[in-house]
Design goal:
Layout: H1 3-16, H2 22-33, H3 35-38, H4 43-50, H5 54-63, H6 69-79, H7 103-124, H8 127-139, E1 143-146, H9 151-164, E2 169-172, H10 175-183, E3 190-194, H11 201-212, E4 216-221, H12 227-231, E5 234-237, H13 250-271, H14 273-296
Parallel strand pairs: 1-2, 1-3, 3-4, 4-5
Helix pairs in contact: 1-6, 1-7, 2-4, 2-5, 4-5, 7-13, 8-13, 9-13, 10-11, 13-14
Length: about 300
């Protein structure tokens, strides 16, 4: 297993934490606390460190899609992720960004955090699923995007980009409007739900309604084992690095926008001449509006 694939496995594991059983989560947390150190442990020593049985460790490995513990050790050794190299923004907690960090330190840590979120997301992104979603979007009569809270910013960005390419798209962050929109979808449409946890009812409910209406559905989440991912026909995951005490969806926003940008560029490639025509129309419309504003000034 190469380093990129191994790191992708660790990123996926981090995102799946909320969906794991208590026993599997104990193993996962021990592994994530020191991946490189865990790679040096026998199955018995890792099981003892996590407070579980050897069988539980084996079951954990199979949950991740691995054949057994040797595959996990190989992945961890290949990744070589040092715990001190990870950052999480949780201001006010005993964490990497301290309350007394100066401006230069905060800027450096946030920049590194955002860069890592984009790199980790790219490493674990399912390319086949990405292209399948691109194909569905290209053929869609209408696209609806559902999100809540900080995810609404990402939904608005996806709406903007799809409209820029000439697609009919609406982003909805109000659950009632989202449900009304989903109720009118058909098999010719696509619904996209955006939720860091994959457990936000305001996002899951309209996606489930879209499923009932026969629309193609997409989940954008950090947890592939979440209810939202289970409801959607296609799942695109991103690197999850937030905590319950986060001050804002900083890292998840960067990771989600990375997926949105990948969708946008691949869709533009897929549409080819149609995309070029749409971009030209948009440019000319904006240019005419600016010229009219100048003439009225």
């Amino acid at each position: 297993m190469d380093r990129t694939s191994a790191q992708a496995l660790i990123v996926r594991l981090r995102g799946r934490l909320p969906s794991l059983s208590p026993v599997e989560r104990a193993v996962a947390e021990r592994v994530l606390a020191d991946p490189a150190g865990a790679a040096s442990l026998s199955i018995g020593r890792l099981a003892a460190a996590a407070g579980v049985s050897d069988t539980s460790v084996t079951r954990f490995c199979r949950t991740l899609g691995l054949r057994g513990y040797p595959d996990l050790r190989l992945a961890l050794a290949a990744a070589q992720v040092a715990a001190e190299g990870e950052f999480a923004v949780r201001v006010g907690a005993e964490d990497d960004i301290a309350p007394d960090d100066d401006t230069r330190t905060v800027v450096a840590k946030v920049a590194r955090l955002n860069a890592r979120a984009a790199e980790d997301t790219a490493a674990q992104l399912d390319l086949a699923a990405l292209d399948a979603v691109v194909g569905a979007l290209a053929a869609a009569r209408r696209v609806e995007v559902y999100a809540a809270g900080a995810g609404a910013v990402v939904a608005a960005d996806l709406e903007y980009k799809l409209q820029h390419l000439g697609l009919v798209c609406a982003a909805r962050s109000d659950v009632h409007r989202a449900l009304m929109g989903a109720a009118h979808l058909t098999a010719a449409d696509v619904a996209v739900g955006i939720s860091y946890s994959g457990r936000t009812a305001e996002v899951r409910d309209p996606v489930e309604e879209a499923v009932r209406r026969g629309a193609t559905t997409v989940a954008l989440t950090s947890d592939p084992g979440s209810p939202l991912a289970g409801a959607a026909g296609h799942v695109l995951t991103f690197a999850g690095r937030e905590s319950d005490r986060r001050t804002g969806a900083t890292v998840s926003r960067t990771a989600q926008l990375t997926v949105v940008d990948c969708l946008y560029v691949r869709l533009a490639q897929h549409l080819d001449g149609r995309a070029a025509d749409a971009l030209d129309r948009t440019h000319h419309a904006v240019t005419r509006a600016r010229a009219a504003d100048r003439s009225r000034a």
